[in-house]
Amino acid sequence: MSNTWEKGLSGEAIARKYLENKGFKTLATNWRYGNHLEIDIVCLSPSNELIGVEVRTHLSTQNYKPFESIDYKKIKRIAKALEIFLSKSNLPQDTHCQVDVVSIVKNDNKIEHFESVDLDL
User: Fold this and answer.
1) What pLDDT, on the 0 to 100 scale, is given for residue 9?
2) How do the domains of the chain map onto residue ranges?
3) What is the Cα–Cα distance from 27 to 101, expressed in whole angstroms?
4) Edge-to-edge strand order for the sheet containing 25-33?
């Protein structure tokens, strides 16, 4: 296993626990559709919105924050994957969907949760 992969899994576990402590219910982790669509965490918010969460993790502060490595294309792919997830689920098809980002700096014990990310650049 690579250190990057292990760091990612560790960050996703931290993010999942953080979200669950805020009342979110995890529905899936590392959900994939095809070769190019993946969501780190799929969950329901306390208000029953379907959330696709992208988790970015750094061990320490670097030249940029973890969330700064996410671009418009990544958010759009997560949104598309979330639509497919909803279509294949038993949830009402009019359930509101959104993409969130959880940014983690492990050595600083810092977690930032960005809700309803929209990268209209």
Assistant:
1) 60
2) 3-114
3) 16
4) 25-33, 37-44, 50-58, 97-105, 110-114
Place of tokens 């760091």: 7
Encode pLDDT of 52-80 as tens digits.
Answer: 999 999 887 777 778 888 998 999 999 99
* CA gap 116, 78 in Å, rounded: 12
Residues in the chain with pLDDT values less than 50: 1-2, 5, 7, 121
What backbone torsions phi and psi does residue 28 show, to the nearest 5 degrees?
Answer: -160, 155
Q: Which two tokens stand for residue 35?
A: 């070769």
The architecture (CATH level 2) of 3-114 comes to: 3-Layer(aba) Sandwich (3.40)
Residue 68's pLDDT is what?
Answer: 84
Could you give the CA distance from residue 7 to residue 27 in angstroms, rounded to a whole number?
A: 22
Residue 17 structure tokens: 């626990």
23 DSSP assignment: T
Torsion, Cα 55 17 35 65, to 10 degrees, reads 10
pTM: 0.88
